Amino acid sequence: MQFERIAIYNFMRYKGENTIEFSCEKGKNVTVVLGDNTVGKTTIAQAFRWCLYGAVLTERGKGQEDYQLLNSDTLALMNADSRAKVRVELTASDEEKRYQIQREVTYTRAFPHMIAEEFQKKLTMHISDLTETASLAEVEEKKVDELINELFPRNLSHYFLFDGERWSDITVNGVKENIKDSVHILTGLSAYQAAMKHLKDMGSYSVISKFKKKITGSGSLYDNLETDYHKYERKIENCRKEIENIEINLGNYQKKCEEIQEYLEANRNTEALQKQYQSLGVVKKSQQEQTVREYKALVNEFSDKVYMIFAEPMIQASLGMVKSVAGERRDVPHMRQATIDYIMKGGRCICGTSLVPDSREWNCLLEQRNYLPPADIGSLLGEFERTASRWRNRVKNTSQELRETARQIDDCVRNYEETCNEYISLEQRLDENLDFAEQRRRLKSYQRNIQELSSQKGQLQGQIQSLNRQKDHLEEEMKGLEARNEENQRWRERIELAEALYKKLYHDFTTEEQKVFVELNKQIQYNFGRMFNAKDKKIELSEQYNIQMYYKTDIGYREEKNLSEGEKIARNFAFIVTIMDYSRRRKAEKSLLESQGNDTLPIVLDGPFSKLGDENIRLISKVLPEVSEQVILFMLKKDWKYTNLDEFVGNTYVIEKDPEKSYASIKKVEEI
User: Fold this and answer.
1) Are 547 and 561 in contact (CB under 8 A)?
2) pTM for the whole thing?
3) Strand pairing partners for 20?
4) pLDDT tens across 260-279, in order?
5) Alpha helices by DSSP H, 90-173
6) Most distant CA pair in the chain: distance in Å?
7) Sign of the CA dihedral with 126 first, then 130, 133, and 137 last
């Protein structure tokens, strides 16, 4: 996928229409737009985002409503009856099709105020064949957003619309992005997830659930079981929706915590105390995790066995009481009164003897019937006694084991409390020079909210597990009551096939995911090394694909959490280059997995080098044309000379702005 052209009309800093043609040549796949600070480079990058998604990238603490899209000069010339349009048209193409996307908003002015108010919105899209430009087809309006998201997935926009000046963390519109999900999309792994979701992981709408609804039973008992089964399904879905809402809130609180922690870290004025504070925090977290592990082990052991201990006196008393009234066992093992009733009703014994009421044989069966459950409980008593014996053997040493685990928990809690006291003391020493009290109060409040929400999430996950067990139990009962007909059998076979397919997909997904993870982790370090020449540092991906930087010490590598803005950009740059390179190579290999994934995306870079050194600029620039099919750069002219990208540049533009005017214009140039 490549961008061919963008046309901007009355959009923010640009009055009238301004157009940029992007280079799509194979050997010259770089387009550069140069301009000084504050003249409108970022505005062009915002135009991409607004045209595709109807939103701009906001600064921290601001919302979409805080940004005026209509050019201020145009707004100033309007009266109460005027209408003015903001329009951005973006043309892109892949190997077969050309896509023309146009987003337009008509504004009125809240005269006499300098406020633009939306009057009408319009989004259109046309598609044509590359070889037959006359075959222009308009996309149905309600499907335009959906198609745009297929071509340029919104949750990947931060990867190909890279804002180097503001992307110190991977966030979109202030919301932390799920990097792991984004990687799955870019590497094609999301195809597995979509298939698994379709088969099983979407509640009552999944294939397996729909198959199960096709099975019919008979009788009121089956109907009651089926009703309960669907009730549990609905409860599980409600729990999952609650978990989704909790995860959104957790993300927001975690973001706020990160912001406060960044502020606190940035204002600490004693480096030695700061390092000691961080080190102690690691110890405290480790001790807390150990305490939780020990406590969970105690609770699990207690929950698993303690009811057997508590039941022992009652079981023994019950056995004694029942034995005193049950007398000698005279029943036939595993036989019930219903068996005798069935034989007598048939009028013939299993040995062939005819059964006539009041005959000797008839009376013998009646006598035996009185020795069978429920009239006689001898066999039930035997089963009860064997169960009691098993329980007794299982809990023989449990009391001592629980006491030992409790002692270990006491030791863990004591060590943790000592560390916490030291940690608090160190906080107070750090706060002597700066008033962090309010920030810390907010931080602790957010952390309490996170803890409460995490607890709620855990409880809901536990409810889901419990409901699933009950649902599985009901399903087994329903199987036994289902009418034994061929139609039911066919649906059961389909369910088993779907379950087997799900299991195979899950196995293949986890295998491929691990393979991708190992490969990306290896490649990201390689790219970081060749782009930043940092021999004393390295970066790695965590299991959740968080990008962590480590620095070399005398005793090995340690994680660096206090990154400079330049280091954050370097870290994120290495990650994006790695992902783009991986996607490009997978496409070139024409593998089956890649054919199910997304096409490779161009990369649009806004101010990528503003906080990097000259050598880093040169090293990064050398890599960019290799890993992406198309590179579009908005940057300062002073940084261009360090890139050495001249041989790869197809088109060059300069942003011009008259100091006496508030708007800018874009001009194509032949040489930089």
Assistant:
1) no
2) 0.57
3) 6
4) 877 776 665 555 666 777 88
5) 144-151, 157-160
6) 123
7) negative
